[in-house]
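Listing 4. Sequential folding, example run.
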Amino acid sequence: NRFADRPMKDWVQELSEVAGFVVAVGDCATYGGIPAMSPNPSESEGLQFLKRKKGGFLGEDFKSKAGYPVINIPGCPAHPDWISQILVAVATGRLDDITLDEFHRPETFFKSFTQTGCTRNVHFAYKASTSDFGQRQGCLFYDLGCRGPMTHSPCNRILWNRVSSKTRAGMPCLGCTEPEFPFHDLAPGTVFKTQTVMGVPKELPTGVNRKDYALLTMVAKDSIPKWAEEDFFTV
């Protein structure tokens, strides 16, 4: 990519050297995103990370003039509210009030999980699944590859267009705010399909061990009430 007959990376390098703050917006700028998928022929990388590995285009030790590392606002796309609120914090001198996590994401947005506030949590608890997109009942985690329980984002707390989210609309979360996105490098059979071993998801919700999960699943499926399989949103 070029601007004014110069490579964009030259502009980024020079501007970052004099910038008080550097904010990366979106997966490509933060962690490399889809262009950085293996084998990554374009040698794409984020400003200070390549997926989970710290370094990136500006280097592991980069600090802005104000003494901050690159502030990452991931997402494909990133929510406008995440962007605007961080920029307001920068403009009003309140960035010290915001803690960054290990991947330089503002914890005010990225400490909780996408599952927080999901309208399908009762279906998740009773292991009531759905195998079709766009349905208003059933959890998307067990069959359709939803990564909501493992993805740090406020998508069900700060709704898109103040109205909805992917999971509320019946589409699984793809984990686009995590450094590894897209997961499994989009290999055939890995998108919109939960990867399992003997019926148990390979990746479990954060903090859940496999033995406890198997026991919980048996109990939940045996005790699921009829109303948990109904459409809650019928009016």
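-- end of first protein; second protein begins --
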Amino acid sequence: RAGRRERVPVAQPAEIRPLVAELNGLLDQNAANLARARTHVANLAHGLKTPLATLTLALADPARDADGTLRGLVGSMDQQVRHHLRRARAAALEGTARGRIGLASPIQDLAATLGRLHAAKGVRVRTEIAEGLTVSCEAQDLDEMLGNLMDNACQWCRGEVRVSAATEGDAVAIGVEDDGMGLDPAAATSVLRRGQRLDETVPGNGFGLSITLELAELYGGGLTLDRSDLGGLRATLVLPG
């Protein structure tokens, strides 16, 4: 029930081996059903969230929605879609054995990719991740959360981004810091809300941080924003270790 094992060990007394085989067959079938459900959820998310985000941004122009009625309707639709997607993903995650993902490799890969994408700006991404440090998380979710935070740091930094990680009890805290302007406490709270952007001149749709927070909370973790000693923002992503 805690999700520490995917199957019942087969090394059992002969009398109960048939029962163990039946149980493992049932568990395998259930795992396959959950995998299909997660695929459908991912397809639904891709098919609905992006168009709704596009509509939200388009309706920000008062000429298209003078009284805000359409923005309200689109916002309500988006909330409903995101609510049911969260419930579906949470149901798929609950009670299943999650793989342990090493942090060093995906973070280093993202750092190299983002360094190339932001080469014209001269961004330097430093990583300080101990080998062997792992989190209990699906690989695709980890990539999405790290990608959102690290790309955000690259967009707002003056030239330096630092990514570090350390254990905190049973959890792992991943810090993504930049040397940009940073945020005041009130703004740090508001940017975690869906679609919130503080600077319309910077590319993005304002959904990255809120999506990262939602994903982290599905795993029992969280996301906080505060000031980095580099001078800019520090985003701390906490995930189960």
